[in-house]
Amino acid sequence: MSRFSGSDDFTLLPDLAVRTLGGSVIWANDEFFAEKENLVNPHPSAYRPATFGHKGQVYDGWETRRHRGRPGDDSAVVRLGVPGVIRGVVVDTAWFKGNFPPEVSLAALAVEGYPPAEQIAARTDWVTLLDRVKVDGDSRNPFAIADENRWTHVKLTMHPDGGVARLRVHGEGRPDTALLGLGPLDLAALENGALVLDCSNRFYSSPNQMLYPGLAREMGDGWETARRRDDGNDWVRIRLAGPGAIRLAEIDTSCFLGNSPGSAALTGFTSDGTEVELLPRTDLLPDTRHRFALRPAAASVVEVRLDIYPDGGLARLRLYGELSA
Questions:
Q1: DSSP letter string over 132-178?
Q2: 41-82 tens-digit pLDDT
Q3: Its Enzyme Commission number (predicted)?
């Protein structure tokens, strides 16, 4: 794959991997000098000279240790915030001058469901989108991609080691066709009239933040409870925008890594107070936008209770469906 050049600049397309769209670096085999999560930060990489930590100069990027005869290469797996068709990538080695990788490559996967990161990294069916190619240090290295498939994850490999400041994955979003047509309106959005009626705990932040528009930018943008020291669980009760049928739920734990709930459940309430199970207790992953197709209740629901087990934080809750007549 040759470096991109031409008037149809793919970098004008959205970065499907950026943190603000929900992108996450879910796995790396090594991040000794600098954390893998820096790869998808939205802002440009920064550098302050002579800022040394206990492992050396602090870099705003992902950096692995020197191999010193250790076989193999170093890789990081990124879950795209918006799955889609990848038109090009930018491997940005800003500030990495004597410690950038000589070569890199990129592979992709289309993953269904929410398997653990280790399982995704260990899969053998990764598809190469960018063959092993030379990169320059302290530079933006753009590469066009010619592929029309929908991908959910990419794997950046450094040959053999070094540091990369940012990975930009430019392309066009493509929805999961299995989820299309399941509901055009977010019945739990504040902008549509929904409201939190009550909750078990709001120690760190208000649960109303879960109903805000857009994606959470940081952990403080969501709802987080105190740590429970009993056998109970935390919950929040939400008045919907109006009576309706909920067909699709999105439970977003983005930005909550060590403090996300282990599982969650959704219960609907009709106008006469009858309880309807919408989502049974279901395991959740940290730092993930989960989407679940629901079987709508026979009668319209007017309120929903979200139970999290046992405690923790959520970035956003979306409940898509149709209002009743």
A1: EEE--TTSEEEEE------EEEEEEEEES--EESEEEEEEEE---GG
A2: 988 988 777 676 666 666 789 999 998 777 889 999 999 988
A3: 3.5.3.4
